[in-house]
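User: Can you help me understand a structure? I only have the sequence.
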Amino acid sequence: MNSDSVFCNVVRAPEDPILGVTVAYNKDTSPNKLNLGVGAYRTEEGKPVVLNVVRKAEQTLVNDPSRVKEYLPIVGLADFNKFSAKLILGADSPAIQENRVTTVQCLSGTGSLRVGGEFLARHYHKLIIYIPQPTWGNHPKIFTLAGLSVKTYRYYDPTTRGLDFQGLLEDLGAAPEGSIVLLHACAHNPTGVDPIPEQWEQIRQLIRSKALLPFFDSAYQGFASGSLDLDAQPVRLFVADGGECLMAQSYAKNMGLYGERVGALSIVCKTADVASKVESQLKLVIRPMYSNPPIHGASIVATILKDGDLYKEWTIELKAMADRIISMRQQLFDALSARGTPGDWSHIIKQIGMFTFTGLNSEQVAFMTKEFHIYMTSDGRISMAGLSSRTVPHLADAIHAAVTSFRSDK
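Assistant: Let's start by predicting it. Here is the structure, written out as tokens:
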């Protein structure tokens, strides 16, 4: 009998570049090691955090004897969907009042993007999606597998470490009419660079004038500025003009529900009739994919969003997380200034959200890992949430040494 496996021709896949950083970090025995690769919030002590408001909501759910473990409908938990739409569009959104929004519960942001992508591949007339360059590493893979053709538009300018706004306008202006455009609602990943309100308005005018279809990825609402309403402004701008758009929401970051995989996909349509037809087709995408979504995480979110006191408590905890990250930016900038590190580091305090695109090149990153045991992705992206007041000096020393040893080619 042939002892070879039927899978003997399978080749080993490369490590995920982001998760691979954590694997290398875990193997390092240095007491000074620092993991700035992972996109998850950490306390000042470097520990994962479960929000108090989440623990309260869970306790309420556990103590409710009427709760059962039956399947949810294909579209998920009704209250969760209703309150998720209100959270991103605003409680007084005309689109919600006119029943022009369909919302389905999905498996966090990734699953929401995938369901949206597959729906568009089946029912939208243009199978091209433009994503920013750079963007989250999973975006091109999600949309390619969903059946869309992925193109990029210029977004980040390495020389200013800010937005390449001219390049963005040129590329979207040259996109075929009707193309889908992926937009980060706030706290662009990996760069931390967001358009300002006036730029958003120009982007909106361009997108609408060319009948492009906006698809927002909202992974950080409330986590960027500390304000849920402020971080949703770009999305609301596009909904206010009466046009159609899609949005993927995740509660991984802003409620710390990473492993619960809680997300929603909302599609804003022209009429209530279209919205109801769209929902019927979304069910046909979801049913053969995972049948229906998990109940626990969505129940936590719904419990918090519909209770005034819990909601208020959440906004306070959320702002504290956002403020800690903003404070880490300031401390790192100050530490580099104090060391006289060559170059302009003001982008660290201008960028927003969990990540900073440092502008360090792969050679400098490799040097920092080898000499200082600091782990991050090779493109120089660091998670600000992985920093603390205690570790900022170590990182600043490493950046200073890397920049003075290897002058950046950017």
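Now, to help you interpret it: The mean pLDDT is 95. The longest helix spans residues 308-339. Let me know which part you'd like to focus on.
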